[in-house]
Task: inverse folding
């Protein structure tokens, strides 16, 4: 820094309100600018051709999107049930007074949370090669349910454990002082309250599962087992257009958006109750 | 049930000790609760009276000593504590109603799961007790919809529905708004007049004086004074009882700072010297400076 510095003329300071106003105007200006650039630069014909070709939309919708949607839902629902049951058992194991149960549950949870879900799917895909005669019933549903359910159980176990620990100790004391053995107190008093707390996070887990069900493509399914992603992808490459994939994407939103809205409602209601 | 011989002991506590880590909360208590008796425990906060009560149904496990309930040793690893708790109702300061169950279900859930009563039988019993606490019309409500006083009365009905031989009350009115205390106390008063054996930790001196057969004054983890209410509350002999009662009964005429002095006296030697310095650095510094100048 030089030693000589001229005194700057006293600048008129903006009031905070004016400053905020100016910043807001800049933000709007940037937004409008970007929108204009996109509108003029983009090749709308090409975009329409690629993403929203009307004849392909029709083909996608008529050729079997219903079956694919049904498969996505069935895969997800089965995996959710398995994950929930297994997750509850794991959560109780993590809170068990028997140390080895805690260890096993911890290892299980860390293992399946740390792995990419796709590895679990690949492993199950190869299972019948590795172990001859190894068959999971209800193929391909059974395999998907088990693979996705195992991954889900790890995440759900942690959610359920948090829910159980959120139940105030006074509840257990009240139950036990009425003479309930600890198992009855857990079943009748603790778990119902825990599940009320964790319904929103569990529904979020369900949304994640809907999307993860797309990983079944690695199992090598026949056409009847296609779910949304696989179905859209197949049609997209057959027709050299992204349109079927876009349709499939919107189908996911049909499932996930209502779930998101439900979660938000539940969270709002819980906040009010508290 | 056997014919109630007068003054048969229900709970016998002998030389009860309880410590949390290095903190000795109970230092050798002995007491007896007899059939049909109402025993009130009073004393300053931190005197161990709630811990004493919670030891009786083993919500806290004693460090040493003997607690016999109906002749059976509670402080024995092999005792069937669930069976013993079935005969003891417990009412908590914070009510601890089950928020996911309706008022009626709160009163039936333990009956059906523990006592294996039929649903109809359990509901009849629950309604009878809700009637007793004056909340018949609330049986379909959920705890969150009730006032604190109503919740506490439901908690009493819930405990009574198990047909207990003894009721434990852990500061049942301490969490209530003042105008709601009366309803709960009148329910307890009625219970006492019906001959229920009651062990009550309370700050309600008027209740203790009117309803109790015996009052126990505790301080510093021991029983300081014990006897009829008119004696312990009316003419206490121990200095600590007198000080406590004066503070409770006439709180507007207490000498400022007396509480701190009493606290310091009770806990003498427990606070390390450097701990004191830490809490009053300003005082310490000023004294040091003054000494230097003088």
Result:
């Amino acid at each position: 820094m030089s030693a000589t510095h001229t005194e700057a003329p006293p600048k008129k300071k903006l009031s905070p309100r004016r400053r905020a106003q100016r910043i807001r105007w800049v933000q709007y200006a940037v937004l409008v600018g970007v929108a204009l650039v996109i509108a003029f630069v983009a090749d709308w014909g090409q975009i329409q051709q690629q993403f929203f070709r009307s004849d392909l939309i029709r083909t996608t919708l008529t050729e079997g999107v219903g079956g694919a949607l049904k498969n996505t839902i069935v895969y997800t629902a089965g995996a959710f049930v398995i994950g929930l049951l297994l997750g509850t058992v794991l959560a109780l194991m993590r809170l068990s007074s028997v140390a080895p149960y805690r260890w096993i549950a911890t290892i299980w949870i860390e293992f399946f949370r740390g792995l990419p879900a796709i590895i679990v799917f690949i492993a199950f895909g190869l299972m019948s090669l590795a172990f001859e005669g190894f068959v999971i019933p209800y193929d391909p549903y059974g395999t998907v349910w088990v693979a996705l359910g195992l991954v889900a159980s790890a995440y759900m176990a942690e959610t359920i454990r948090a829910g159980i620990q959120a139940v105030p100790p006074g509840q257990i004391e009240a139950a036990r002082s009425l003479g309930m053995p600890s198992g009855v107190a857990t079943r009748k008093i603790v778990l119902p309250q825990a599940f009320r707390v964790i319904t929103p996070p569990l529904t979020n887990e369900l949304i994640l599962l809907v999307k993860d069900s797309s990983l079944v493509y690695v199992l090598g399914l026949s056409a009847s087992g296609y779910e949304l992603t696989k179905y859209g992808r197949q049609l997209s490459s057959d027709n050299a257009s992204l349109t079927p994939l876009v349709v499939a994407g919107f189908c996911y939103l049909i499932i996930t958006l209502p779930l998101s809205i439900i979660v938000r409602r539940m969270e709002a209601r819980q906040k009010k109750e508290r | 049930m056997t014919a109630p011989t007068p003054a048969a002991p229900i709970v016998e506590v002998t030389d009860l000790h309880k410590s949390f880590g290095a903190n000795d909360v109970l230092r050798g208590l002995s007491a007896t609760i007899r059939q049909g008796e109402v025993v009130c425990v009073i004393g300053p906060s931190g005197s161990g009276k709630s811990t004493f009560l919670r030891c009786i149904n083993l919500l806290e496990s004693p460090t040493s000593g003997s607690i016999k309930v109906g002749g059976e040793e509670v402080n024995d690893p092999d005792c069937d504590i669930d069976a013993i708790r079935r005969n003891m109702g417990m009412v908590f300061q914070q009510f601890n109603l089950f928020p996911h169950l309706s008022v009626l279900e709160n009163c039936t859930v333990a009956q059906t799961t523990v006592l294996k009563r039929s649903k109809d039988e359990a509901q009849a019993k629950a309604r009878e007790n809700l009637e007793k606490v004056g909340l018949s019309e609330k049986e379909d409500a959920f705890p969150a919809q009730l006032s604190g006083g109503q919740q506490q009365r439901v908690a009493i009905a819930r405990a009574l529905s198990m047909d207990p031989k003894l009721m434990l009350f852990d500061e049942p009115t301490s969490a209530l708004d003042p105008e709601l205390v009366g309803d709960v106390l009148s329910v307890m008063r009625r219970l006492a007049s019906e001959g229920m054996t009651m062990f009550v930790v309370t700050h309600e001196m008027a209740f203790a004086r009117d309803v109790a057969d015996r009052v126990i004054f505790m301080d510093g983890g021991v029983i300081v004074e014990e006897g009829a209410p008119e004696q312990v509350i009316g003419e206490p002999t121990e200095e600590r009882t007198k000080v406590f009662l004066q503070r409770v009964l006439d709180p507007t005429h207490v000498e400022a700072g007396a509480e701190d002095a009493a606290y310091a006296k009770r806990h003498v030697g427990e606070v390390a010297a450097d701990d004191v310095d830490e809490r009053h650095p300003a005082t310490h510094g000023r004294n040091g400076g003054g000494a230097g100048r003088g």
